[in-house]
Amino acid sequence: MNLKFRREPDEVIKLTDANANDFKGEWLAIIDETIVAHNENIGNVIDKVKKDHAGKKPSYVRVQKGNIAMY
Q1: What is the 3-state secondary structure (H, E, C) of 19-34?
Q2: Domain limits of the chain?
């Protein structure tokens, strides 16, 4: 998966190349502005990051199920 984010000048990250509706209710792990894992269960996301991206420090974001606004 190689879904990129666009970083705004005020450090807000927005989904650009992905349909945010695809991630409703899921946790995203982001490394270097790229979604590297996603799942409804945060434990599964953390396990995948530890396995596939050892030594990297991801940011975790949960996409709400309703209208999407990530700040």
Answers
A1: CHHHHCCCEEEEECCE
A2: 3-62
